[in-house]
Write a structure and sequence with these properties.
Two copies of one chain form a homodimer. By secondary structure, the first copy, chain A, is an alpha/beta fold. Chain A has twelve helices and 15 strands. The complex binds pyridoxal-5'-phosphate (2 copies). Chains A, B: Keywords: Lyase, Mitochondrion, Pyridoxal phosphate.
C-alpha cells in the first residue's frame, strides 16, 4: 500500500517465508510481478505491458471502471450480511435469473467456486437421499475436501490418495484423445453408455446416484468440447440423480453463441443446479448456486439454515450486477463469438504447416490448441507446450498449458480481447512453433493425416 | 444500484422468489432493510438509526474510510490471483505473522471461515496421516460439508443426520451450564479428561486422532468462556493429533487483553493451526489459515498444489492490511478491554435485581448474558430472550440470542463501541427485563443464590 514498492527479490523472499509452499506461482523460475492491469493488459513493476490471454476471471477486462465504481461506492455505503434485507441481492438474483431457463430461479450467493460446488453436492444429497456422485475423468471442481474427492485432476497429483468409494469417474467426452473419437459414429451415445454402465455397477454394489457433476466444457481437463447433446444422454436422472452444471469457468457469455455453456447442449437441456464463479465478480470473491424451486425446498426441508457470512453481501452483489450490465452493454458475448471464431480460423490456417499442432478446438473465447509430437500416436508435446508459454512470456504474452498432459495451450482471455490481439498472439505462436519444430527436426511430411484420432501407423 | 430503491415489500417479494429459502433473515416477522452503515450504527430505508451490538464482522466499524479507500484504490489498480507476485499478499502475511507466536509463520489466504477450516482439516489429515477429528458440543465451524460434520450446532438442526463415524464430540467447557461447573474443584482437568476418554474410545475402535478443533471461546455455542488452561490439557498432541484454534469469531483483539483468544490460555500455548475470518476484512470476503513450517511442508509433500481462485488477491490483502493498521492506530483492542469491561461490570450491577439474569460472562467485547427462568434449575429463558431482542429492535438496538437454547444474549459489536453505547443498551435491557419479569410475576425473592450451577431446590 502507501505507494512503497518492494524490490522484486524482497517480494520473493517474503513469499517464501510467509506464503504456503503449496501455493504455486506462474513461471516459477522467473515469476512475474504484476502491479497494474487494464482491459486485456497487465503491467509489471517496470511498467512492461503483457497481453493477457489467460485470466478468464477478469472477464469484462481488468479493473473495468464501471465494476470498480459499483464496488467502491457500495463499500463506502454498506457491507453487511444477507440476514438484513437489501436491494442489491434481490436485483442481482433477478438479473442473473433472466439469463437462465425459467425453472432455474433460486439463488444462493457464496464466495468461491468451491463453496458453490460443495453446496450443490449438499443439495443433491439432500434432495435425492442418495450418496454417490459421478464425475468426469480429469475434472476439477474445487479445493475443499468434498471436491478434491470428485476432482481426478487434483487427486491424481497426490502420492497417496484413497478414492472415496461413493465417487465414480466417467471417461471425459474428449473426441480428440478420449475413448471415443471423431471417427466414432456416435461418440455422444458411446460416452453416455459408459455412464449407464457406471450407474449399473454402482447400483449393484448398493450405491445410489445423487448427482452427475460436469463442466459443460472441460477447462483444466484440457479445453474439451463434448460432442453435441452428450449431457442430455447422461442417464443420471433415470437413476434418480440430478445434473449439476459447473459453469465456474465457462459461463457468462464466454462461449459466444450462448450465455451459458450448458445451452450448447440444446435449448431444451436444463440442469437441476448451475454453479457459477470466477468471472461473476470480475475478480471479486463471489460465486453462486442457482437451482429449481423443487431442489431448494427439499434442501430447506432438512431444517438446517444455510448461513454464509460474506455470501450475498451488498458489495459483492453490486459488483455482480455491474458485471452483468457491462457484458450486455459492451456486447461481450458477441465479441467472444467474433474474436474467438477469428482465433480458431487463424489457428486453423497454420495447422497444416505445423507438425506440432494436433487439435484446435473452441467455442467463443474458450479455445484449446493441443500440441503433439506425433499426429497419429497423439504423443503429448508437453515440454514443447511449456517452451511455447515461456517464450511467449519473454515476448510479453501470457498463455498457459493445461490438460492431463499439460500439452493443451489454453486461451481464455478477458472478453474484451480483440482481433488485433489475436493477430499478435497467433503470429508469435506461429514463429515459436516453427523454431521449435526446426530445432527438433520435425517436418510437415509427418503431417499426412491431421484428422486427430484416426490411429494409423506413425512415421516417427 | 443507480440510486433507485425498491419498496420494502418488493424487496421482500423478490427475496422470496429468488433467494434460497434456507437463507434466513433477522426478525423474520418484520425484517429490517438496512441501506447504510457507519461505525457502530446502521440505517434503515427511512434513515432510522440502529445501534449495532452484533456485527462482529464490521470489526473496525462499518465502512471505515481507511479500509474502504484501501479496497477501492486497489480495485482500480489490479485484482488478480496469487500466481503472480504481489507486495500486498506478502506484506499482509508479514504483518499478520507479527501478531502471532513466531512458530505460526506460514499463511494461506482464502475467502471464508469455512474455506479456512476445511483447509485446516486437510492439513491435519495430511500431516498426521490420521482421520479422526474431535470437536466440541454446540460447536459451529462452517457451512461446507466437511464442517457440517464437525458442527453439532448445525447437524443437530437436521431432522435426519448420520453422524460421521470419524468425528467425536467432547463436552463444551461451559462452567455455567455444562457437565463441570464453577463449583467443581478443577473443571479444566475434568473437561480435558473427557477428551482423554474420547481418544481412548476412538483408538479402541481403530481410530487415530488427526485434530482437535475448537474456538478459543465458543460463540454460537453460547458465548462460552472455558476455564483457564483447558486448551493446554486437551491431550490431543499426545494422541498424535494437532490443535486447530478457530479464531474466526474471536480473533483480532476482540478479547481485549490479547490479540488472539487462544492467548487467554497462557502465553506458552501455541496451536498448530489458527484459522481466521469474519473481522479480518471488515466484511470483505477474506479469511486465512496460519500454520507452522512443519505442517506446511507436510501439506506440500502430498504433491498437490493448493489453488484458490480469489484467495490472496491484491484487493483482499490491501483490505486486510488496512484493518490491521486501523486496529493498531485506533487502539481498538484497548477499547475492547475498557468498554467490554465496563459492559460486564454494568450488567453485574443489575444482576441481583433480575431473576432472569442467570450468568454474565465475557472477555473484552465478547460478552454473553444468559437468561434463565430459574437460577437453580437453569431453565433456559428462550422465549424471554427472543422477547428482549424484539423489543430492543423496536427501540433501534440490534442484539441477538444464541447458544443451544437460544437464551444467551450475545454482544459482539464493532470494536469502536463506546461506554455511552453501553449505557444505552444496558438501560434498555434493564427496563425490558423488568417489564418481562413483572408480566411473568417473577420476583427477586427467587434470587437466593445467584452462583449459577449449584443445583438447589427451586422455589418456583
Ligand atoms: C470448473 C471449476 N470449478 C470450480 C472451481 C473452484 O473455484 P474456486 O477456486 O473459486 O474455489 C474451479 C477453479 O479453478 C474450476 O475451474
Ligand atoms: C467459529 C466459526 N468458524 C467458522 C465460521 C464459518 O465462517 P464463514 O461463514 O465465513 O464460512 C463461522 C461463521 O459463523 C464461525 O462462527
Amino acid at each position: 500500500m502507501s505507494g512503497v514498492e518492494l524490490e522484486k527479490s524482497t517480494t520473493i523472499d517474503l513469499r517464501k517465508k510467509h506464503i504456503g509452499p503449496s501455493c504455486k506461482i506462474f513461471f516459477s523460475h522467473e515469476p512475474i510481478k504484476i502491479v497494474q492491469a487494464k482491459g486485456q493488459y497487465m503491467y509489471d513493476e517496470n511498467r512492461q505491458r503483457y497481453l493477457d490471454c489467460i485470466n478468464n476471471v477478469a472477464h469484462v477486462g481488468h479493473c473495468h471502471p464501471e465494476v470498480v465504481n459499483a464496488g467502491a461506492s457500495q463499500m463506502a455505503l454498506l457491507n453487511t450480511n444477507s440476514r438484513f434485507l437489501h436491494d442489491n441481492i434481490v436485483l442481482f438474483a433477478q438479473k442473473l435469473q433472466s439469463t437462465l431457463p425459467e425453472k432455474l430461479s433460486v439463488c444462493y450467493f457464496v464466495n468461491s467456486g468451491s463453496e458453490a460446488n460443495d453446496l450443490a453436492l449438499r443439495m443433491a444429497w439432500q434432495y435425492t437421499g442418495h450418496k454417490d456422485v459421478i464425475t468426469l475423468q480429469n475434472a476439477y471442481h474445487g479445493h475443499v475436501s468434498s471436491l478434491i474427492d470428485i476432482s481426478p485432476y487434483k487427486f491424481h497429483q497426490m502420492s497417496s490418495y484413497e478414492m472415496n468409494p461413493r465417487v465414480h469417474v466417467a471417461p471425459s467426452p474428449d473426441v480428440y484423445r478420449g475413448k471415443y473419437r471423431r471417427d466414432h459414429p456416435d461418440p455422444a451415445t458411446a460416452y453416455a453408455d459408459e455412464v449407464k454402465d457406471i450407474i449399473h455397477k454402482a447400483e449393484e454394489k448398493g450405491g445410489k446416484i445423487a448427482a452427475f457433476i460436469a463442466e459443460s466444457l472441460q477447462s483444466c481437463g484440457g479445453q474439451v468440447i463434448p460432442p453435441w447433446a452428450t449431457s442430455k444422454k447422461w442417464h443420471v436422472r433415470k437413476a434418480g440423480g440430478i445434473f449439476i452444471a459447473d459453469e465456474v469457468q465457462v459461463g457468462f457469455g464466454r462461449v459466444g453463441t450462448h450465455f451459458w455453456a450448458f445451452q450448447l447442449q440444446g435449448e431444451d437441456f436444463v440442469p437441476d443446479i448451475v454453479t457459477m464463479g470466477k468471472p461473476i465478480g470480475n475478480g471479486h470473491p463471489l460465486s453462486c448456486v442457482v437451482t429449481t424451486r423443487e431442489v431448494a425446498e427439499a434442501f430447506m426441508s432438512s431444517g438446517m439454515e444455510y448461513f454464509n457470512t460474506f455470501g450475498g453481501n451488498p458489495v459483492s452483489c453490486a459488483i455482480g450486477l455491474a458485471v452483468l450490465e457491462v457484458i450486455e452493454k459492451e456486447d461481450l458475448q458477441g465479441n467472444a463469438l467474433r474474436v474467438g471464431g477469428y482465433l480458431c480460423s487463424l489457428l486453423e490456417k497454420h495447422k497444416e504447416k505445423h507438425p506440432l499442432i494436433g487439435d484446435i478446438r473452441g467455442r467463443g473465447l474458450f479455445v484449446g490448441l493441443e500440441l503433439v509430437r506425433d499426429k497419429h500416436k497423439l504423443t503429448p508435446a508437453t515440454a514443447e507446450a511449456q517452451e511455447v508459454i515461456y517464450r511467449l512470456k519473454e515476448q510479453h504474452i501470457l498463455l498457459s498449458a493445461d490438460g492431463p498432459h499439460r500439452n493443451v495451450l489454453k486461451f481464455k482471455p478477458p472478453m474484451c480481447f480483440t482481433k488485433e490481439d489475436v493477430d499478435l498472439v497467433v503470429e508469435k505462436i506461429d514463429n515459436i512453433l516453427t523454431e521449435i519444430e526446426h530445432t527438433l527436426g520435425m517436418t510437415n511430411k509427418q503431417n499426412v493425416d491431421n484428422e486427430g484420432g484416426k490411429r494409423k501407423a506413425s512415421e516417427t
